[in-house]
DNA sequence: CTGAAAGCGCTTACAG
DNA sequence: CTGAAAGCGCTTACAG
């Protein structure tokens, strides 16, 4: 660790409020680490205070100066061990590891192992045709030197990049939870398979050009593209380069590019059936922007479910946000005061509808049942809590990653459609 | 576009419900594109139907077969133009562009421009010392051939990667909105500066090792690391390699690694002052996991504000989720029924507290004022709407990107602390 | 201002 | 099973 004047410093522990049993081994462990550091010449330049809650005030002086860490015991010990190992490591190397030192290359490893570069390459890449002794020697040299292959050099000759581009466009639909889940799960699965992720944006003409260039220059072995609402053309264009492309959401136009989607129609039909099942017969619908494919599908599901009951849909077009949902609901309810239920193509619209209902003095669900779509985080926080259709964001992310992996393996794959489950709460 | 049996097909337009004025030019434009395609030998294999809402049912047959696009006029025209240009482009190239064709190299460009590879390289990299004619010739050849430099070859010799690693660890604090904002804004700004983003996870021992290897092997020119709560050691370790590192959130231990943070203490003090200003004197606090630095700082701000008013804090420790917040609130309120306000270190805890208050029959804010921290999406949806402290997620993301860029430019930089503003709603 | 040439660190036929 | 050698596509002193 480095203080503000750049000098190394080691920890001095002051721990309070720890169970005695635990304290002993904890302190011992720490002091051992400390002793090692001191013996190896580190100078004490400050204090790191670990303490529990009841000594916050006492410890405040230290906190101001060096930072105070409040941790539970488990964390405390893990961190302690980490930093102890780390100190030893650093000190063992005699001061700062030098970033400017040349990294070892195949050449270095080969020399140390007493074999040729070709053999080292074979071992590193897991080829079978290497003798046990050679392999052993190479592996040892790799370990001792901390050899890591140079990705650029490898990619230059293999023409692979072991990289997948994750392309985000404007999130008109889906929201932050979906983005976060995809970023996390797609990355996790692809990293597990030895791929690297390049994050790209495709929200402007410029950035879209960049994506096309990137892919045409073969800087990615595959592309995960989301959400595609406005980007059918982009997806097709990328697919034409021969690089595997995978989409989130059904594209507007039938396509051979495989995609992952949620059963929007089925979910909307389920929500509508639920309203019907509660005896509602005059059901209005708040419908988000109809150029979004997901909105189209939800609309279709709603319509089909109504038709089956011999009813016809009654729509109010709306934007994407709560304010616009509230306005559409007000409009619909004043034009059609007889309505006893509202279905909306998104939770944000439903939350707007709840506000409108409150403003208009309609009790939910007694006078007006409201059902949304999405099960966003806020849906369970409203009063009444929102009945809605859950969009399984994590499953979508995982399916997307799996689809990409199978395409990278050269397998063909069709679209994946995940079920959307009704979540019944209080609003309908 | 490709149908399911792999054949090209062109669009046939059927548009309804469009204002007549618009319709004419729209259809004309489309038919022109169509004619071009047909003249150039494309076969009609299907229909793409653009229509507006009122012909949904009629169009359903087409929808089933080929996908139906509902679009507003603006979108319609843009998309039409896109696909028309795209058709022409593809067809002009005589069928599918071949992904397996060799891309042009410096060599190719040099030959075409009648100069040496070195000169082409100089032009491409914007060096000044090139004659106007040579530059002109090279630029033309680049344009005509669609030349894009091979990143691997370039990186091999320059030892730069023009890549920044964006490292995500477990999101114990901050949530999806923060992740989404960072992914979006950091990527946007760095792409604008010609950098590529490599997305990495650091949530397991394995993935952390991968990150260290990645950086030590110089596969990134910089690292944006978030959230650092458990990763002080990782940040220090990466910084030791000499690669610029930038952190989200104040690290637990004082460090030279620059970071971006929110004024957690100031925000908590403001919320507490607000409660005091409303005449509340018996203020309890729900305190999230105290090993999180942000929680420590919020706690400190709360305590300082109380102390200034001659009061002492009354804490209940809690986890991170709503359930745990509700439980802590129940505990605190039954042990101390005299409490007239609660401050919480996060909105999720506050939402839990609202539930507990309702269960216990306490009216909010009359009997019990509640203030949270974060201003998450759900905060404005509760009843009563939550008074809270806004954490400016976009500003954080932008500051993080700026910090990284200045570090990449070799400039040193200190920590950035962004203000956290009180948002007064109904709960306090 | 320009070109010939060396070299970045790998992989991969090819020959043995 | 192994090594010598060519070559991936670029940049950059160096010499002119």
Automatic annotation (TrEMBL), chains A, B:
It comes from the Bacteria. One of its GO terms (biological process) is carbohydrate metabolic process. Pfam families: Glyco_hydro_1, LacI, Peripla_BP_3. CDD domains: HTH_LacI, PBP1_LacI_sugar_binding-like. Residues 104-158 form the HTH lacI-type domain. Keywords: DNA-binding, Transcription, Transcription regulation. One of its GO terms (molecular function) is DNA-binding transcription factor activity. Residues 105-133 form the HTH cro/C1-type domain. SUPFAM superfamilies: (Trans)glycosidases (SSF51445), lambda repressor-like DNA-binding domains (SSF47413), Periplasmic binding protein-like I (SSF53822). PANTHER family: HTH-TYPE TRANSCRIPTIONAL REGULATOR GALS, LACI-RELATED TRANSCRIPTIONAL REPRESSOR. This is Substrate-binding domain-containing protein. It comes from Nonomuraea rhodomycinica.
